Amino acid sequence: xxxxxxxxxxxxxxxxxxxxxxxxxxxxxxxxxxxxxxxxxxxxxxxxxxxxxxxxxxxxxxxxxxxxxxxxxxxxxxxxxxxxxxxxxxxxxxxxxxxxxxxxxxxxxxxxxxxxxxxxxxxxxxxxxxxxxxxxxxxxxxxxxxxxxxxxxxxxxxxxxxxxxxxxxxxxxxxxxxxxxxxxxxxxxxxxxxxxxxxxxxxxxxxxxxxxxxxxxxxxxxxxxxxxxxxxxxxxxxxxxxxxxxxxxxxxxxxxxxxxxxxxxxxxxxxxxxxxxxxxxxxxxxxxxxxxxxxxxxxxxxxxxxxxxxxxxxxxxxxxxxxxxxxxxx
Amino acid sequence: xxxxxxxxxxxxxxxxxxxxxxxxxxxxxxxxxxxxxxxxxxxxxxxxxxxxxxxxxxxxxxxxxxxxxxxxxxxxxxxxxxxxxxxxxxxxxxxxxxxxxxxxxxxxxxxxxxxxxxxxxxxxxxxxxxxxxxxxxxxxxxxxxxxxxxxxxxxxxxxxxxxxxxxxxxxxxxxxxxxxxxxxxxxxxxxxxxxxxxxxxxxxxxxxxxxxxxxxxxxxxxxxxxxxxxxxxxxxxxxxxxxxxxxxxxxxxxxxxxxxxxxxxxxxxxxxxxxxxxxxxxxxxxxxxxxxxxxxxxxxxxxxxxxxxxxxxxxxxxxxxxxxxxxxxx
Amino acid sequence: xxxxxxxxxxxxxxxxxxxxxxxxxxxxxxxxxxxxxxxxxxxxxxxxxxxxxxxxxxxxxxxxxxxxxxxxxxxxxxxxxxxxxxxxxxxxxxxxxxxxxxxxxxxxxxxxxxxxxxxxxxxxxxxxxxxxxxxxxxxxxxxxxxxxxxxxxxxxxxxxxxxxxxxxxxxxxxxxxxxxxxxxxxxxxxxxxxxxxxxxxxxxxxxxxxxxxxxxxxxxxxxxxxxxxxxxxxxxxxxxxxxxxxxxxxxxxxxxxxxxxxxxxxxxxxxxxxxxxxxxxxxxxxxxxxxxxxxxxxxxxxxxxxxxxxxxxxxxxxxxxxxxxxx
Amino acid sequence: xxxxxxxxxxxxxxxxxxxxxxxxxxxxxxxxxxxxxxxxxxxxxxxxxxxxxxxxxxxxxxxxxxxxxxxxxxxxxxxxxxxxxxxxxxxxxxxxxxxxxxxxxxxxxxxxxxxxxxxxxxxxxxxxxxxxxxxxxxxxxxxxxxxxxxxxxxxxxxxxxxxxxxxxxxxxxxxxxxxxxxxxxxxxxxxxxxxxxxxxxxxxxxxxxxxxxxxxxxxxxxxxxxxxxxxxxxxxxxxxxxxxxxxxxxxxxxxxxxxxxxxxxxxxxxxxxxxxxxxxxxxxxxxxxxxxxxxxxxxxxxxxxxxxxxxxxxxxxxxxxxxxxxx
Lengths: 330, 330, 327, 327
Ligand SMILES: Cc1ncc(C[n+]2csc(CCOP(=O)(O)OP(=O)(O)O)c2C)c(N)n1
Ligand SMILES: Cc1ncc(C[n+]2csc(CCOP(=O)(O)OP(=O)(O)O)c2C)c(N)n1
Ligand SMILES: [Mg+2]
Ligand SMILES: [Mg+2]
What we know:
CATH topology of chain A: Rossmann fold
CATH superfamily of chain A: Thiamin diphosphate (ThDP)-binding fold, Pyr/PP domains
Distance between the termini of chain C: 51 Å
Largest sheet of chain A: 5 strands, parallel
CATH architecture of chain A: 3-Layer(aba) Sandwich
CATH class of the largest domain in chain C: Alpha Beta
CATH architecture of the largest domain in chain C: 3-Layer(aba) Sandwich
Number of strands of chain C: 14
Radius of gyration of chain A: 20 Å
Shape of chain C: globular
Low-confidence stretches of chain C: none
Number of domains of chain C: 2
Helix content of chain C: 25-40%
Shape of chain A: globular
Number of helices of chain A: 12
Structural class of chain A: alpha/beta
Largest interface: C-D, 55 and 55 residues
Number of domains of chain A: 1
Number of helices of chain C: 11
Number of strands of chain A: 7
Helix content of chain A: 40-55%
Order of helices and strands of chain A: HHEHHHEHEEEHEHEHHHH
Oligomer: heterotetramer
Strand content of chain C: 15-25%
Bound molecules: thiamine diphosphate, magnesium ion
CATH topology of the largest domain in chain C: Rossmann fold
Radius of gyration of chain C: 19 Å
CATH superfamily of the largest domain in chain C: Thiamin diphosphate (ThDP)-binding fold, Pyr/PP domains
Structural class of chain C: alpha/beta
Mean pLDDT of chain C: 97
C-alpha cells in the first residue's frame, strides 16, 4: 500500500478513536446525555471498508455508528452538534447518536433497532438496481443483529434479485453481554450466507490494510449485482454502552484483543516509513479538529427549541402534484 | 413394510383425500363459507410423518392443515362441525379451518399466519426440553413460509438450545402463485439448514412409505435433542385456495405430478397383496365415515350462538392462587 | 366527462395505473401481485404494462416493508401491498420505528413516501387472522397518515394523493367494497388528505364513520329516516390527520354524536373522535355520546358468531336512537 | 410486618423471585438477562438461583415471543422481557395474532399465560427508538390485558397477579421509576388486575393517569393544592380491563376530568377513558374534559426538545385549571 494511502487510513481511524474518546469523556462528565455505543477497537472495519467506496455509495449503519459516519466523511462539528442536541446538528438534534443520517454523503442512518438497518440498506440497493445506477449499498450490522428475522428476509431478497449490496458484519463476538457462540451454533456469521447462495468471506477486522484490500477485491462483484457478505472479526474495547461492567468476558480476553489494536498496528507500520515527528503532527492536528469541533458545537450552537421540536413530523407535500413538481429527494 | 401398516397408511391418506374432496364439494355448493386450503396431493407427507410419532408428540400445522389434523387422530365429525361453525366443533366454531386446535391429540393448531406456527412449535419443544419429557414437537410449514424471519429465528434457537423438534417443510414448489425458485436462490429449503448447523434431508413427498421410513430414521436423533429439517417434495393438485385459476403453472406440470399421486401409488402396491374387494370395502367404509360425520355436523350440531360468541376472550383466572391450585393446562 | 361504471377494485387499479404512467419513480411491492394479480385482484395485469416496477416478493412482510422504506429514502415512491391487514403486525417495526420517524428524526433531510395498501374487514367467515380492522393500533403513531376510503371515487382520488404525499400512508381498503360498482367520472380530481366528507346532511344526530362503516351507517340512516330520525352522516376518509372541524361543526348543529367503526370499540378510533368533540363542544351536546363497533373479543370464524361480534345495522340504529336522549 | 426500603426495580425482582420459587412452571426469557442481569438490572442474579429457568435469548424478539407462546400453550407460565418497549413492534404479530387469540379462537381448549414485561418511557435523551410509550397501540387488542404499575407495591403486587393470570398480559414498567424507593411491606397482598387506585381524594377535578404519569400528576396536584385547587388523582394501574367505575364515580363527584399520559394524546389511552366517562355520566360534567400527553411528533433525542414534546407538570396544571371552566 502506498504511503499516502496508509496515512489516509491512519488519519481516518485515529480521528474516529479520538472522537469516541471525547464522547466517552463528555459522558463521564455528564456533558452528554442519553446513551452511546463506542466503536473503539473496531475502527479498522469502518475505515477499511468505507475507504474503498465512493461518496455516491450508500452506507447504512447500526447503533455503533460514529466510526461509519466519520469514515464516510461526515463533518465532526455537525456530529458533535447532533450528539449535543443542537439545532445545527445533522438532524437538528432530533436524531442523536442512534438516529443519525447525513444525506450529503449518502449515509442513510445509524439505527437504534438491532437489525433495523438491514432491510433499509437492501431497499437502497433495490433503488440502485431499478435505476441502473453506478453505485452500491454497504450495510453494517453486528453479530447479534444476524439473529434477527430481518437479516434472513433481506439477504434472501438481495440474493434472488441480484442487488448490488455489501453486507458487512462486524463480529465483535458479543451482542451486548451475549457471546455469539451462545446464540449461534457457529461462531462465524459468514456461514449463514450459505442459506442464500450468497458469497462470503472472513477478514481480520483489526487490520485496516487487510480489510481494505479484501473489500477492494469483493467490490467488483458487488458492483455487478452480486450481494456479498463480509465478516470482520473484531472487538470493542469498551463496554457495550455506558456503565457496562463487562462481567461476561475476561480481562485476559480483552488484553489479548487490545494487543491487536488496529491503530497501534498501523502506527507501527507507519513508523517504518514516516518520521515520528510527522506522525505526531498528524495526531496533534486531529486532536485539534476534535477539540475545535466540540467547542463549536458546545459554544456556537443552539439547543433544539420548542418550535422546532414540535415541527417536522410530516414532510411538506404540495397537495397532488403532477410529475414535474414532485418533492422527491434524490 | 407390513401389510397391516400399509393398510393403515392407505386408510389415513384416503380419509384425508375424501375429507378434502367433501370440503371442496361443500364450498362449491355454498354450504361452507370463508376460505379453505386443500392438501389434496400432499397426503403422503402428513400421513408418512405423523404415523411415525406418538399421541403425546406435539404437532403444529399451517393454513393447509386438514391432513395433519386427521393424521394426528382428530375426529372427523368434530372437524366438520368446526368448519361449519358449529358449537360442537373442536373450537366451538370460533377457529375455523385456519385456527383449529385439538388439545386431545396434542395438535397445537393450524395457523392463518404464514410461518406463524414455527416459533410456537419451537416453544412446545422448549417445554419438552425444560421438563425433560419423552416427546417431541413436529412443525409443518410450506416452502413459502421458509422466507419469513420467524423461520430463521426459530431454527437458530432450536439449534443452539438443542430442542427435540422435527421441522417438516412441505415444499409444493409454490407459495400461493409464487414459484419457490422465484423467491429463493436454491430450490431446496433443506439447504437453509446449513446456516444453523441443523441436519436436513430431502424425501419424495409423494411416496408414503419413503416419507415414513425416512422420518423413522430421523426421529431417534430428534428425540435425543437434535432438531432436524425434513423437506418433502410434494405438490398440491388443487389451486391455492378457492377460485385460483392457476395461471402460474402449466397443465403439463400438473399432469406430471398427478401421475405421482400418493394415493394411487399406495393403492397399486396394496393391490398386489390385497384383493380388490377388500380395498373397495375400505374405501366404502371411509366414504361412510365422511358422509356420516358431515351429516352429524350439519344436522345435529348447533350454530355458534350470540352468548358464546361474545364469551371467552379471556380465560378464567382464580385471582392470585398459590401453587397448589394453579389453573395451568398441562 | 369521461364516465364509466367502475368498481372500488378497478378504481384503485386505475389510480395505480395512472400513477405508474405519470411517474417512473413509483413502484409497487407485494406478494403475488404479478401473474396472480394480487389476492384480491387489484394489481391485475399491471405487471404486463410495468414489468420492472411491479415487484413480486417472498412472504416476508417485515423485510419487504423495510426494503420499501429504504427505496423510499433513496427517491422512490413505494406502494406496498400487504395481502390482509392482519399481516401488518409483521411489519409494525418498519412502520412505527422507521417509516414514520424518518422525516422528523433525520431533521428533515429525507422523506419516506411509502403507501401501505391493505384490505381490512370481516363479515366473510375467514376467521380471526384474516378479518381484522386494525387501524386503531396505528392512530397514536406520529408521522404516519391513515386513509380509509369508503367510496369508489375516494378510493381513486385518495390513492393519488396518498402516493404523492411525502409521508408514509397507511391506506386501508375493504374486502367487502372491492365489488361495489358506481358510475365514475375519470376527470375526478385527486381528493386531498385530511378532509372529511358529509355523506348526507341531517338535523338530529351526527353519525361519523369510515371505510365499510359508512355503508352500514348509510343503510341505517335510510331506515331511521322512515322512523322520522334525520341523521347527518360523515365519512372521515382520512383518520390521521383528522378533520375534526367538520365533525365539530356538525355536532354543534345536531347536538348528538355516534361513532361507528368495524374495529374494536374499546381502544378504537371512535375514542379519539369523541374526545376531541367533547373537548371542543361539550356545551352543545344534547344526548348520550355513543360508539358502535366490534365487541372486545376476537372475531370467530363461524358466520353466525361473526355477525354477533361485528357491528350491524340494528346496533347502529339502536345507538342513534339512544343518542337522542340521556338515558 | 416485614418491611424494608425497596426500589421499584427490586420490587419486580422480588416478585419474580417469589414466583419462580412458588411454581416451577414459571420461566423467564429475554435478552441479556443472565450474567448481565437485564439491561435495567431487573433480573439481576436470578439466573444463579434458577439456572434452568432464566433463558437468555438471541436478539430475536419476534421469535422468542412466539416461542414463549408455544411454551405457554404447553403448560408454562412465561415471563418475557422486551428490553425496551420500542422493540415490542417486532413481536406484534406474536401478541396480536397469536397470544391474544389463543383462548378464544381455540374455543377455550388452551390458555396462553405469557407476561410481557417491558420498560417504557422517555425523559432520558435516548432518542425515539428507546423512549416510546406504546400501550395505546395495544388497547384495541381483545384477549390481551395491559398493566402499568406506578408504585413500588403495585409493581410487586400486580406482577404476581399478572403471572398467575391465565391470559397474556402486557406489563409496562417505567425507566424513570426503577430507582424510586419506598418503605415496602413484604406481606403485601397481590394486587388484583382491573382495579384502579385512588391516590388522593379531592373535590374539584378528577385527574386520571397511569405509570409515570401518576407521579407527574402527583407533583402537579401538590402545586395546585397550594393554589386552592383540590384534585382527586386516580391511578388506573390496569388499562385493560379498565376499571371505569372508579373513574365514573369520581367524575360524578368532581364534575371534571383530565386524562394524563406520557404517550401520544392523539390515539392514546385517554380517548378510551374520556369516551367511556362521557357515555356514562355526561350530565354530571361541569367543565372542559381535557387530555394531556405527548405531542403528535416523534420524540427528539435532544433533552431540551424532548421536554417540549413530552408532558410536564406545567402542562398538567394548565389542563387541570382549564377543566374548571368551559372556555
Ligand atoms: C430490536 C432491538 N433489540 C435489542 C436492542 C438492544 N441492543 C442494542 S445493541 C444490542 C446488541 C447488538 O449486538 P450486535 O449486533 O452484535 O452489535 P454490537 O453492539 O456488538 O456492535 C442490543 C441487544 C435493540 N436496540 N434493538
Ligand atoms: C403472514 C402471511 N402472509 C401472507 C399470507 C397469505 N398466504 C396464505 S398461504 C400463502 C402461501 C404459503 O405458501 P407455503 O408456505 O408454501 O404453503 P402452501 O400454501 O404452499 O401450502 C400465503 C402467501 C398469510 N396467510 N400470512
Ligand atoms: Mg456484536
Ligand atoms: Mg408451498
